[in-house]
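tokens incoming
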């Protein structure tokens, strides 16, 4: 009897985690996992520039290790002055970062490639390769020129974040002290229409509450908050209120939870882990359902918590979701099917313009 008990004890102790690992790996064989935000591009394009933000959390190698199939790589820049000269410089920097991402994909073609659509992400997964989707964080680089939206679409950009921490020509930012446009400017509205026409996802992370709600209303296709958290769990202007999340979801959009202490918890960084991430996910699921939630790490831009410090650790999230009781179908949606659905809808809407 004692031997039998010992056997059960050892089974519980030793084999359960192993079988959970097998479940996690089997799940990743059959799903597509997508992370909707990282800030790899700036350091890659401008390696000589100093930064205080932790880097090295993003690469095709780490994606493979963590079973992450696809990621949106953002050409990010902080908001600067808004003169014509500064807008030209912002465009040049965005162009350099996007060209840098193209170079990274070309130089690492054995491991991954650029994806321009949901079907290209699926095709790369079938070849065992990582998919890099290009995006822009802060439409500062558009200045006040509508024609640049097509320029970035043609470079391969498939999502644009309206703002960063300061107001720009398009919209008010969540963390700016001044409400300048009442949410969106007229130019911001026209940019959203142009993004809809071309097939670019509107990203409302960093936008002010009014800008977010207006963007949801104006956009003909679902919008995404590519890296955010829940305001009711951590009350910072950058996190989303129930009103914003309900509005985003009501039009088919997505709330992508960031893997960073800044978004998730007021506890010291050393004490923030996957439990906090799961708490935010659970909140969004309870509020708007599993069809409207996902992951946007913010790696290389301040992201990373205990247990998920870089892209090589993404499987730990899947494990935590299984332990939390999420079904395989729910995890499939959360990890990638929701994003694929939005990409397909945005692409289809743009195609409808090309027929006329
Ligand atoms: Zn950001």
């Amino acid at each position: 009897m004692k031997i039998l008990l010992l056997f059960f004890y050892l089974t519980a102790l030793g084999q359960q985690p192993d079988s959970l690992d097998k479940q996690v790996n089997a799940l990743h064989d059959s799903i597509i996992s997508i992370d909707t935000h990282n800030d790899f591009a700036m350091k890659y394009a401008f390696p000589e520039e100093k930064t205080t933000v932790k880097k090295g959390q993003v690469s095709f190698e780490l994606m493979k290790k963590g079973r992450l199939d696809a990621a949106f790589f953002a050409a990010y820049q902080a908001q600067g002055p808004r003169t014509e000269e500064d807008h030209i410089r912002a465009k040049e920097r965005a162009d350099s970062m996007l060209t840098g991402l193209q170079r990274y994909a070309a130089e690492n073609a054995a491991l991954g490639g650029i994806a321009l659509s949901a079907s290209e992400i699926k095709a790369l997964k079938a070849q065992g390769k990582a998919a890099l989707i290009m995006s822009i964080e802060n439409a500062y680089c558009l200045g006040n020129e509508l024609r640049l939206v097509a320029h970035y679409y043609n470079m391969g950009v498939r999502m644009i974040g309206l703002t960063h921490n300061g107001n720009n020509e398009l919209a008010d930012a969540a963390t700016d002290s001044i409400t300048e446009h009442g949410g969106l400017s007229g130019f911001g509205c026209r940019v959203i229409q142009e993004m809809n026409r071309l097939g670019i996802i509107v990203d409302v992370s960093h936008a002010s509450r009014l800008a977010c709600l207006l963007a949801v209303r104006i956009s003909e296709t679902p919008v995404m908050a590519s890296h955010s958290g829940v305001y009711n769990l951590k009350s910072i202007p950058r996190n989303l209120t129930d009103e914003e999340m309900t509005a985003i979801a009501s039009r088919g959009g997505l709330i992508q939870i960031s893997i960073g202490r800044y978004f998730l918890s007021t506890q010291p960084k050393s004490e923030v882990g996957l439990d906090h991430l799961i708490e935010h996910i659970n909140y969004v699921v309870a509020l708007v359902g599993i069809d409207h939630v996902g992951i946007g790490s913010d790696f290389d831009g301040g992201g990373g918590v205990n247990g998920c410090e870089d892209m090589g650790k993404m499987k730990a999230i899947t494990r935590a979701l299984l332990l939390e009781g999420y079904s395989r179908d729910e995890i499939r949606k959360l990890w990638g099917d929701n994003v694929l659905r939005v990409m397909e809808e945005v692409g289809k809407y743009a195609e409808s313009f090309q027929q006329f």
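note: The two ends are 77 Å apart (CA to CA).
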